[in-house]
Structures are given as C-alpha cells and as structure tokens.
Specification:
938 residues, mainly alpha, Serine Threonine Protein Phosphatase 5, Tetratricopeptide repeat, PPR/CCM1_RNA-binding
Length: 938
C-alpha cells in the first residue's frame, strides 16, 4: 500500500497537483512506522521540492525518526529550527524529545527541555503544555538511576502545573523510595495517593512490600499482604517471592516454606524464581534433604528448575566442601538435560581439587571436552594448583602441557603454581632451575613468585640463599613486601636464630614495614622455644601497647603454652583472663594446652572442668584433648574411667591413635591387670591399628612382672614375626625368671636368641646370663659361665662382676670375691662405689673389719667418695667390735663430708656412733622418698 501511495504522490507532482500536508503526513507516518528512516528524510525533501508547506505534525514525525535512530543531536537541531521558522511545538513535540532523551538515559537533558517549557509560560491563543505522560517518563527515568530526590522535585513540579498524577506516577515514586530504603517516605506517599482518590494497586503494594523486605521490616510487609487480601487484591507470585527471599536472608526457612504453602493455597502457581528464593536459603544453611523435597515439589507442579537454580545449588554444595555430593548432583541433572556453563564447571573442578580428588577433576574436565566445551585457563589453573598443593610436580606439569596443546598461554599465576608444585614436592634444586628459566620470560615473575621460592628456601634452612634471593629481587626492581619479610622472619625463627630475627624486624621498620601480627607471633614463639619467657612477654606488651596491634587467639595460645611448659600456672590463668576481657574466645588449641598443663600439675579436677566447659561452648574435643584427659586419669589410677572416655571417643567419631592405647595398656600392665591390657590390644586390631613396639613393650613388661614368662616369650615371637625388634631388657628379665624357676637350659636358649637377633653384643648377653644365675643363687653355674667368658676372651662388665661378687659374699666365699676384684683390675675395669660397698659389706658381715677398712682407704685413694651405705655398714661393724680408733677416724670423715654435724660436747664414742648411724639412716630414707617423688638428688 505504501508503494502505491508514493507512486500516486509522485504522479501528482509531475502533473503539478499539490498533495495536502495532511496526506503527506499520513505517508510520512507510515514510512516511520515501518522504520524506513532514510526514506522519511527523502520524502520530506520531495515535499519541499513540490513546495508543500510542512506543519508541526510533519516535523514531529521527522523528529521521532531522528530520535529512533539515536541521532539526538540532529533532533535537537531540528527542534531549534522549528521554533526559528515560527512553528509552535506541541505537547507531542516536547514529549518526543523528552521520551527519547529518557530512553537514551539522558534524563538531565530531558529535564532541561522541561525547564525550557516553564520559561516559555502559557500563551493566550494556544497553550504549550507538557502532559502527565512526559513527567511519568522523567520520574521513572530518575528513579531508575536512583536519583529519587530529583524525581520527587519533578513530581512536585507536576503538581504545581496542576497536572494530576496517575496511580502509575505514585507507584513509580513509591518504588524509587523503597529501592533507596526510605520506606517511611514511601508509606507517606502511599497515604497521599489514597487521599488524592487513587486506591493503591498491586504495583504500589508490591513496591512497598519489597521495600519493607529489603530493610528487614518483615512485620510491616506481612501486614501489607493482609491488607491486600482484605481489599480483595490478588497477591501475585512476585510479592510472595520477595517475602520468601527476605526469609532466606534472615535464615527463616520455616516461614519461607509457609509463604510457599500460602501461595499455592491462594491458587497461584509458584514460578522458578519463587522456588529459587527458598532453595538459595536452604543451600546456605546446608539443608540438603529439604532441597530435595522442594525439587520434588517443583517436578510435581510441572515447574522445571532452570540453569541458574542448578548452578546455585552446585555452588553451595561445593562451598560446604562436599565435592562428591556436588559431582553426584551434577550427574543426576546432566541426565535430565542440564548443561552447566563454564563458571559452574570450574566451581566443581575447584571443589574436587580442594579435596585432592584430582583424578575425578581431570575426568570431569575430559567430560566437558566431550561436550564440546573447551576448558578455559581457570579450569587448568584449578587442576595444576591441586597437584601443587599435593606436592605432585609431575602431575602439575602434565596438565600444563595439555593446557599449552589446547592453545592457552600461561601467565604469572601459571608459573607461580608450577613453582609451588616443585617446592611442595621437596624438589628445591628443580624449583631453583625452573625459577631461573622463567626469569628470562618477560612478565613471568612477580613478588608472589619470589615469595614462593623464598618460603621453600627458608623451610630447608637455606637462610644465606634466602637473603641472596631477596637481594636478587631488589636488583630486578621488585620491592619486598610484608609477606617477604614475614617469610624471612619465620625462617630465622624456625632455626632458632632469634637475634638475626630481631635485627631483621628492626630493619623492616627502616624500610617502612612495621611488624604485623604474623611477624610478632613468629618472634614471640621463637623466644618461648629458646626459653626467653620474659623477653617474649615484653615483646607481647610492645605489640599490644606500643604498636597498637590487637593480639589474636594464636598469640595468646603461644604464650600460654610457653608458661604452661615451665609450670607457671598463675601466669597462664592471668593470660586466659586477659583474653576473655578482650573478647577473644579460647579455641580448641587453647583448651588442649590448658587441659594438658593441669594434667601435668596433677590437677585432674581442673582439667575435667575445662573439658566440660569446652563441650558446653560447642567445641568438639579432638585426639589431643582425649589424650590429655586419659593421661590424667591413668596417672590418678582411674584407668577404668579412661577406658570409658576411649569408648566415648569412638562413639563421637574421633579415631583414637596408638598413643592413647599405649597409655592405657602401659598403666594396666604396670598394675598387672593383663586381661584388660590384652582386651585393649585386641580393640586396637579391630580398628585396623597395628600394635607398635611401645604397645608390645608394655605387655611384655606386665607379663614378666607377673612371672608369666611363657606368655611373654610368645608375645616376643609375635613381635619378631611382625618385624618389630624386641628389647634386650625383655630377654634379660626372662633369663632372670628362667633361672629363678630352675630352667637353666631355657635361660641359655633365651641368651642365644637375644644374641642371634643382634639385640646386644655377646659380652652383654653372657653377662646377663651370669647375673641371672647369681640372682637365683646358682653361683657355681654362674662361675662356669664366667669362666667360659674368660676363655672366649670376653671381658664381663663391671655390673656383672659386682653381681657375682655380691652372691659370693652372701655365701661367705670372700676369697673368691676378692679374687674377682683382682681379675677386674687386671682387665683395667674400674671398680665403682657399688662394687666396693658389696665387698665391704661382705667383709663386715663375716667379721673381717680390718680388710673392710683397707678397702675403704683404697676407695679414698682412688678419689671414690663413699656413700651413706658405706658408712652405715662400717659404723655397725665398728660398734659391734668396739674399735675406738677406727671409729674416731670414720666419724671425722663423715663430719667432713657434711653428713652429720660435729659434736661440741664430748660423748661416749659408742653413743656418737649410734647417733651417726641413726642420722645416716634418716638421711638415706629421706633421699629415697625424694627419688620416688621424682626430685633430683645430688
């Protein structure tokens, strides 16, 4: 039809007939509607050529065409020309300009046009007015830009011009205020709207409800929903979705599900967005079972989840660290036609790599290739980084080669994680070579790359190389950062070089890097390890008070552990109190340190209180916690409760280690409760834990203590079969037991086996046999073995000679005992105090005091200090034989040694010797008690 109209127009022109401007405007508007913009301008030229005078409608059509093309400058130029030639723009003209300025987002220019209208005023013969729709466009535009104040001024200006705003104008402005969080102003505007005769509709109610949801005023939003229902207004799914989304943000999953039910009861079918609001909330709370229920409900109502919903769920499952569940979910939805985008696939690959499921990650990437979706650089980075964290450089470089083959170019991050792979794998030399290679590649190395290698050098203790690397870094115009200095500090502290570390921290300050929390923690930890608790405390005070760095739980734990180690529990309690006053809550490590410290101090009740408190505040005990508690119970003789704690561990899913089992088994073995000890060892095996050497040692010691040598020997055979080397002390104990039971040949067999296993040299094995025979009184057999040792050229130990000499003295074979003393001297074996005491005791008991005193003098000549036992035996013998001169001499020696104080008042010698004997015995008993209590005695 348009072509025919144009033909007729042109024929009329050829015949000199002018078409009316009205007819021309009809043709022009038709051309514009068909978006033939170039033809509009050509037709206008033809009109002018035929001297047809255009009217304002003609210009309005052309103006709209320019605006449609986005040629607002030309439109503005034409607008000026219209006024210059005397045409009066109509509302349509102004609205066209304003609308198009608004559509192009040039609201300021649109406002200038409105201001221009105001300046023109109102003429008597024809009013130039803007319509309500013009203002609606402007208000909407400024609200979209978030300039609600400007939109409000325009709205007020509209009222000043006596233009009546529509319900839409109010709704737009209400929505704008709500988006800015100004629900109070929006509510006032809603009331003004109703006072002006406009009933709020679904749009205005929806805007207000959405606004209240955004500012967390759920009660107000729900009241508005009730008001809508009272006014018989349909609450659409958009409003319900806003309410459910707000419940998601407040983690009120029950209320969100209630809104979903209300929505369905109202006859409104939820859309994907409605379900998404609930599923997003459940994802964040980890409610996987409820998510499955919602997805099932969606399928029943015929609403199919979209890609965004699936991607969101995969993201949250991965965020929760359940990579296997995410992969399983992806597999399920893949078979129903879901095609994940690259971002979702990379999220899944990253989650798999973080769980070290690298085989699954690579298989998944191959799956994406089979789907004709090429992995991007990020995909490869995730897998290379996974191999790097695992310390698998071969795997990392294999994936790197694949990446190159697929046309991806490595960047700084790529080279950094490849270097990390070599470092984490312990390949320091290869890492250094690779680093020097990438140094030749432009823009392949940054500060992070240097720090990776620096950390590895420090880890290996290569501090000189570390300092050289920092110098190299500066040469290459890369300035060390805080991480660089922290790595160096950590390296020095790890090697115990506290002075260079402190010097480095001072040097940092001159470079403008003030030590941060990490640096201070390293220094404090190093000082504590070196036993410098006062210096560590001073540094802590400097950090908090001088530098204003708030301490964290790690620093407090470091100090608490240091003071606990030396038993300064008052300092520990002060630090714990300080932590709590600062609002720093003790963590699991804090409780473990405190519990272990109180156990060491034998304050079991305090440890148990801490254990209970730990559970009450929601901290789960770990292996270290249970180990300390069980240790305390065992030390207090409450092993049965320790076993119950062990059972509690297993029920809570905490796997006990062999240290805990060994602790209990050792204590039960010491108490000779072997039945329970064996039960615990069987429990270890049921948990797929192999008893260690310490486990078997405890069992064997317990069996030997009960004299069950056959069972003990059977356990030793099990140890040998399992490749665990028994201790020679076990064999010696069994040799003693066999000798005591009269099983001499059994003892010899044990000796031979001990020697064959290479547990001890032959002289030790033979000596153990001699001592075993002596202890059970079989001196003749012991002498035969000793004689065999002499013939074999084996020199017995001093302890062996002493043992057999003790046996000989007991049966009054003093000549044989003294003969062995001479043999010892021939073999250049040094006689110790114990050997002399054995001989002196034997001589005194058999009334050979003179010979005993000779040995006493010999001891003094050899610079061997007689002990209390020596003096007690000699005093008893002197008193018995009433040897005055020797008694005086001995008392003087005892006084010189400081064992007793000199007597000022002369007493009877016999009385003085009796007093000395009593005091020496008291001193000996006192020392025994100190030894049993674990105190060192000089």
């Amino acid at each position: 039809m348009l072509k025919d109209a144009l033909k007729i127009f042109r024929l009329m022109g050829l015949q000199g007939i002018k078409a009316s401007v009205y007819s021309c405007n009809l043709i022009l508007s038709t051309i514009a509607r068909e978006k033939q913009i170039n033809l509009v301008w050509l037709f206008f030229k033809e009109m002018l050529k035929q001297k047809i005078r255009p009217d304002i409608c003609t210009f309005n059509i052309i103006l709209n065409s320019f605006c449609f093309e986005g040629k607002l400058e030309k439109a503005g130029y034409l607008f000026k020309k219209i006024e210059e030639v005397g045409y009066i723009p109509t509302t349509v003209t102004y609205n066209a300009i304003v609308n198009w300025f608004c559509k192009m987002g040039r609201f300021k220019a649109a406002l200038q046009v409105i201001d221009c209208l105001g300046k023109k005023g109102i003429m008597a013969d024809g009013k130039v007015l803007t319509s309500e729709s013009t203002y609606k466009t402007l208000i909407s535009g400024f609200c979209e830009e978030g300039k609600v104040d400007v939109a409000t001024r325009i709205f007020n200006k509209m009222l000043d011009l006596n233009l009546v705003p529509s319900c839409i104008n109010y709704s737009i402005l209400i929505d704008g205020h709500c988006r800015n969080g100004n629900t109070g102003r929006a509510s006032i505007l809603s009331n003004e709207m109703e006072a002006g005769g406009f009933r709020p509709n679904q749009i205005s109610f929806g805007a207000l409800i959405n606004g209240y949801c955004k500012v967390l005023e759920m009660d107000a939003a729900i009241n508005l929903v009730d008001e809508m229902q009272t006014r018989s207004l349909l609450v659409k799914h958009v409003i319900y979705t806003s309410l459910m989304d707000e419940c998601r943000r407040k983690r009120q999953d029950y209320e969100a599900l209630k809104f979903l039910t209300d929505m369905c009861d109202s006859g409104i079918t939820p859309v994907v967005v409605s379900y998404s609001a609930i599923i997003n909330g459940l994802c964040k709370m980890g409610r996987l079972n409820q998510i499955r229920e919602i997805l099932g409900r969606m399928q029943k109502t015929g609403v199919l989840p979209n890609n965004i919903l699936y991607a969101t769920r995969i993201y949250h499952i991965c965020k929760d660290g359940d990579a296997m569940e995410a992969l399983k979910f992806y597999t399920d939805i893949y078979y129903v036609g879901y095609c994940a985008n690259l971002i979702t696939r990379n999220t899944l690959i990253s989650a798999l790599c973080q769980k070290w499921m690298l085989i699954e990650a690579e298989q998944f990437m191959q799956h994406t290739l089979s789907m004709k979706i090429d992995p991007d650089l990020i995909s490869f980075h995730h897998i290379i980084n996974g191999h790097s964290n695992k310390g698998d450089p071969l795997g990392a470089f294999a994936v790197y080669e694949q990446m190159i083959e697929m046309g991806h170019h490595p960047n700084i991050y790529t080279f950094g994680i490849l270097l990390k792979a070599l470092c984490n794998g312990g390949n320091l030399n290869e890492a250094k070579k690779f680093f020097h290679r990438i140094l030749q590649i432009p823009f392949a190395v940054d500060i992070c790359t240097y720090n990776i290698l620096l950390m590895e050098l420090c880890k290996f203790g290569k501090l000189d190389d570390s300092l050289k690397l920092v110098d190299k870094m500066i040469e290459n115009n890369i300035i060390p950062d805080m991480d660089t200095y922290n790595i160096l500090l950590s390296g020095f502290c790890r090697k115990g070089k506290i002075l260079p570390a402190i010097y480095l921290s001072e040097k940092m300050r001159t470079k403008g890097f003030f030590p941060n929390l990490v640096a201070y923690t390293c220094l404090i930890s190093c000082l504590i390890k070196e036993g410098q608790l006062k210096a560590a405390s001073y540094l802590f005070e400097e950090m908090v008070k001088k530098d204003g760095i708030p301490a964290d739980v790690v620093v407090y734990n470091t100090l608490i552990a240091g003071y606990s180690r030396v038993g300064l529990m008052q300092k520990v309690e002060k630090l714990v109190s300080m932590m709590q006053n600062k609002g720093i809550h003790p963590n699991q490590a804090t409780y473990n340190i405190l519990i272990h410290a109180y156990v060491k101090k034998q304050k079991l009740l305090k440890s148990l209180d801490l254990y209970k408190n730990m559970i009450q505040i929601g901290l789960n005990p770990d292996k270290l916690t249970y180990h300390s508690i069980i240790l305390g119970l065992c030390e207090s003789g409450m092993m049965d409760i320790g076993v119950k704690i062990l059972e509690k561990m297993r029920l809570e899913g905490v796997s006990p280690d062999d240290l805990i089992f060994n602790l209990l088994i050792t204590k039960y073995s010491e108490k000779s409760e072997m039945k329970i000890a064996f039960k615990l060892m069987n429990c270890m095996r049921s948990l797929q834990m192999s008893p260690s050497s310490d486990t078997y040692d405890a069992i064997v010691s317990g069996l030997n203590r009960k004299g069950w040598f056959q069972d003990s020997y059977a356990i030793l055979q099990v140890m040998i079969r399992e490749g665990i080397s028994p201790k020679h002390t076990h064999y010696i104990t069994m040799i003693n037991g066999a000798c005591r039971n009269g099983d001499i040949w059994g003892a010899f067999r044990l000796r031979d086996e001990m020697e064959a296993l290479g547990l001890v040299p032959r002289e030790v094995a033979e000596s153990s046999m001699v001592r075993g025979l002596c202890k059970c009184g079989k001196l003749d057999e012991a002498m035969l073995v000793l004689d065999g040792m002499f013939r074999a050229g084996i020199v017995p130990t001093t302890a062996t000679f002493t043992t057999i000499m003790n046996g000989l003295c007991k049966v009054a074979k003093l000549d044989d005992a003294l003969y062995l003393k001479n043999v010892m001297e021939q073999y250049d074996l040094k006689l110790d105090v114990i050997t002399y005491n054995v001989l002196i005791t034997g001589l005194c008991c058999n009334r050979h005091l003179a010979n005993a005193l000779e040995l006493y003098e010999e001891m003094k000549q050899k610079k061997l200090l007689p002990n209390i036992a020596t003096y007690v035996v000699l005093i008893a013998a002197i008193c018995k034989e009433n040897r005055v001169q020797e008694g005086v001499m001995l008392l003087k020696d005892i006084e010189d040694r400081g064992f007793i104080h000199p007597e000022e008042n002369a007493k009877d010698l016999h009385k003085r010797l009796s007093d000395a004997l009593r005091r020496l015995n008291m001193l000996r008993n006192c020392r025994k008690k100190l030894l049993f209590s674990g105190v060192a005695v000089s």
